[in-house]
Amino acid sequence: MFLKNFLRTLPGKVDLLWDRGTIHKRKLVKDFLLKRARVHVHEFPAYAPELNPDEYVWTRSKQRLANTCPNSLDELGNQVQDTLLSIAQSNKLLRSCLKESDLPCCY
Length: 107
Prior knowledge:
By secondary structure, this protein is mainly alpha-helical. The chain contains five helices and two strands, in the order αβαβααα. Helix 3 packs across helix 4 (about 75-90) and helix 3 packs across helix 5 (about 90-100). It has a two-stranded parallel sheet with strand order 1-2. The chain is globular and about 45 Å long. It has helices spanning about 1-10, 25-35, 55-65, 75-90, 90-100; strands at about 15-20, 40-45.
């Protein structure tokens, strides 16, 4: 399970920001989170993409991929993966995605 592996890498309290995807509402996920008091789930309101920082990650990805012309689906997949990895490895870019969202917090 992704969450189980993910939480192994993070010590202490974890604030989890979630959209209202159906996967997040499954019994398996709810039961898992009930046993982990250190995880605090924050759900976005329905239809509020402006609050969701991952929308800004996708926006940055699309900007970087614009005007590229991959020769195959494999090449496109590699370009998308490389773009997402470069964003994931930059704390500056990730923080900017949080700042661009309308979340009521300071990062």
